């Protein structure tokens, strides 16, 4: 950080001064920032809570047969119970829509599941087809009595048709799946510069799938430079 002094130029227009260093812009305050670069897990998030709510609500359950016809599981806010073959495999179809903006080309989608699964997403909208593996695999999710203990995250092209090939290990004859858009369910985190566990309410915050370093979910720190002052 260097500051160009302009004392010799007093009286001239400010435009005649060299650049003055200011605090580096906090690009993380932008809601539209790319998400997955710092996303290593989707456990213990608002999205997990949201997915578990659907898994616990019988009214959200949809039974589909993953052994024939690759049924579509793209409807939001559903818990799909996917029937699998005796060897624990099946195929469903997923078509992402734009969530972040009407021009968004890629969406991050987390598939929460009740079993340990391998999922490959085959983009059948391109020739030759492209096969994707999960960018993030989170296991051991424990939230209350929620049956969703695993999640697999993919970045998917909006409007493309993906065949999701599911294989459970150990093999099970069905698996519960809740697809969720990361963008819809990111947590909001506040900057905690003084480390007292409370973050400044404004202007710095960021959305993320997990708390970034130096950010916390609790806000209301009116002095983020003094760890003895918080919740004020
Ligand atoms: Ca403080």
Word description of this protein:
- Helix content is 4%, strand content 31%.
- β5 and β6 (130-133) form a beta hairpin.
- Residues 1-37 have low confidence and may be disordered.
- The protein has 1 helix and 13 strands, in the order αβββββββββββββ.
- The strands form 3 sheets. The chain has a 6-stranded mixed β-sheet with strand order 1-2-10-4-8-7, covered by helices on one side. A 4-stranded antiparallel β-sheet has the order 3-9-5-6, with no helix packed on it. A 3-stranded antiparallel β-sheet has the order 12-11-13, with no helix packed on it.
- The protein has 2 domains: 39-185, Jelly Rolls, CATH 2.60.120; 186-232, no CATH class.
- The chain has 232 residues and is mainly β.
- Bound molecules: calcium ion.
- Residues 194, 196, 198, 221, 223-224, 226-227, 229-230 line the site of calcium ion.
- Keywords: Signal.
- It comes from Corallococcus macrosporus DSM 14697.
- Residues 1-23 form the signal peptide.
- This is Lipoprotein.
Features of the shown structure:
232 residues; 1 helix; binds calcium ion; Lipoprotein; signal; disordered N terminus; 2 domains; single chain; Jelly Rolls; mainly beta; six-stranded mixed sheet; four-stranded antiparallel sheet
């Amino acid at each position: 950080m260097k500051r160009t002094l302009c004392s010799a130029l007093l009286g001239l227009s400010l435009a005649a001064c060299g650049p003055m260093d200011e605090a580096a812009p906090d690009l993380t305050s932008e809601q539209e920032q790319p998400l997955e670069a710092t996303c290593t897990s989707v456990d213990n998030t608002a999205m997990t809570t949201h997915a578990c709510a659907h898994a616990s609500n019988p009214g959200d359950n949809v039974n589909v047969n993953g052994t024939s016809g690759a049924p579509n599981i793209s409807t939001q806010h559903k818990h799909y119970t996917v029937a699998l073959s005796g060897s624990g495999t099946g195929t469903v179809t997923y078509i992402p829509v734009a969530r972040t903006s009407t021009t968004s080309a890629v969406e991050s989608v987390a598939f929460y599941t009740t079993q340990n699964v391998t999922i490959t997403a085959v983009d059948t909208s391109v020739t030759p087809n492209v096969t994707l593996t999960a960018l993030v695999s989170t296991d051991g999710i424990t939230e209350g009595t929620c049956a969703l203990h695993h999640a697999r995250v993919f970045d998917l092209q909006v409007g493309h048709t993906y065949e999701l090939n599911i294989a459970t290990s150990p093999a099970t004859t069905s698996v519960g799946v809740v697809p969720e858009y990361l963008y819809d369910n990111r947590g909001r985190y506040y900057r905690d510069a003084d480390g007292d566990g409370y973050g400044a309410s404004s202007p710095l915050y960021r959305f993320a799938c997990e708390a970034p370093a130096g950010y916390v979910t609790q806000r209301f720190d009116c002095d983020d430079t003094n760890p003895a002052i918080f919740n004020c």
